Amino acid sequence: MANKFAVIVDAYSTGAKLASKFQAEGISVLHVQSAAPIIDFYVNDFRPDDFIANVIFTGLAECVADIDQALNGAKPMCVLAGAETGIELADLLAAELGLPGNATNSSRVRRDKYAMASALQAADLATPHFLRTDSLDALNQWAADHCWPLVLKPLASAGNDSVFFCYDSTELKTAFQSIYNKANRFGGHNNHVLAQTLLKGTQYVINSVSIDGQHYISDMWVDRRKFILGASNIYDCEELLAYEGDVQGDLITYIKKALDALGVCNGPAHSEIMMTAEGPVLIETGARLQGAMLEEPVVEALGESQITLTIERYCHPERFKRRLGQQYVLSRHVMCVAMISDQEGVVVDTTGFEQVCSLPSYACHFHLPEKGDDIVRTIDLFSIPGVVYLSHKDRHVLQRDYQTIRQLEQAHQVFTVHEKIRA
After folding, report:
1. Running DSSP on this structure, what letter comes out for residue 306?
2. Reported pTM
3. Number of C-alpha atoms within 13 angstroms, CB side, residue 27?
4. Which residues of the chain have pLDDT under 70?
5. What is the rounded (10 degree) CA torsion for 155, 173, 129, 253?
6. In what order do the strands lie in the sheet with 164-166?
7. Strand partners, 115
8. pLDDT of residue 156
């Protein structure tokens, strides 16, 4: 592996962990920044010292020339996206450099939720009814033919950014005006909105890693959300599932067909699926690692993670291919708990969090606010005050500790906050 190089586009969120993993394999890593400046949501994730150079994209030809110069003419072994914003550029660079990737003619299908739904529909896979529009009148006409509630969201964003559940035409108008012609959190501009009928059922997360169009399921989670007045459905908790179970077989069969329909051939993918009464329906797929993820509890439970398997796919492809058709084995239960705040103000004390750390199943946490930080009411992924991982061989211990966390939150015993007085 000497003198080998990897290229990561937008190594943010979970993708920030890839560089050190490649380095452990003896592979140097070059970073490509898809836009300048780095958006606020990602700016603290970037670790410039992990890379031999940082190339800021200003055009495809210029970017390829800059990569060639930085690598002294050496050809990289792979290009992959570290975060949602890097997906399309990673496809372009892989194609330009003659490396395994996902086809550029279907890149938009993996970013634009309207194109994604259309591709699934063309493949005879179930989707909600949907409409792309820039007209409130057209939206109201479409809504008249469907049942409330309806869902409005941007075409290309993530992390339940500006996802609204609308129960009448007034809420629909408010949601449309909140999305249309506004910037989203990932640096794009919402020239249209996507409307969908609401999927009803249980939500799941399926993470995968692909090689030459063959897909390995790395981990599956039941994804529980909470509906809160004045917010979208906010993250509650995700619980790691065994490979086999009541619904897992149907989920796996469906997601492999969906990945094919979306042109996911190489690298990681993060998919959200609703298991409805009629069967599984894709909510969306990102051709990237799952965001906001700590891998240590997952590795402890499964022996691998989506991150380690992504590295294996590129560094040891033959070893990875031997996994295809195999099942992961769950050795302990894991729950990822999104903290929820109903307070707004300045955090003046965090010692109450020690009660969470003392729980029998506590494993680790991240993105916890510190003393002096502002805290806001949780309305989406971007406003959660931290994530806690629970891990234990006894699932009942996990469930009990999860309930304890929610009780501590409701009693305002996790963070002491000097609340802002509303005018």
Report:
1. H
2. 0.93
3. 25
4. 1-2, 158-160, 229-232, 421-423
5. 50
6. 130-133, 193-197, 150-154, 164-166
7. none
8. 83
Q: Which residues contact 336 (CB under 8 A, 6 or more apart)?
A: 221, 237, 238, 239, 293, 387, 388, 389, 390
- Structure-derived torsion over alpha carbons of residues 154, 156, 161, 164, reported in degrees to the nearest 10: 30
Summarize pLDDT for 220-233 with one digit per residue, the tens.
999 999 877 655 67
What integer pLDDT is reported at residue 230 of this predicted model?
58
Residue 1: the pLDDT is 42
In single-letter form, the type of residue at position 359 comes to: L
Do 294 and 366 touch, CB atoms closer than 8 A? Answer: yes
Both tokens of 318, joined, read: 């033959």
Q: What whole-number distance in Å separates Cα of residue 9 and Cα of residue 34?
A: 7
Q: Contact 56/106 with Cβ under 8 angstroms?
A: no
Please tell me the predicted confidence (pLDDT) of residue 41.
80
DSSP string for residues in 382-408: GG---EEEEEES-HHHHHHHHHHHHHH
Sorted by where each starts, the structural domains of the chain and their CATH numbers stand as 4-99 (3.40.50.20), 129-197 (3.30.1490.20), 200-331 (3.30.470.20), 332-392+402-423 (3.90.1170)
How many alpha carbons lie under 13 Å from residue 189 in its C-beta half-sphere? Answer: 2
Q: Are 127 and 121 in contact (CB under 8 A)?
A: yes
- Which token pair is 236? 């509650």
Give the per-residue pLDDT at 398. 97
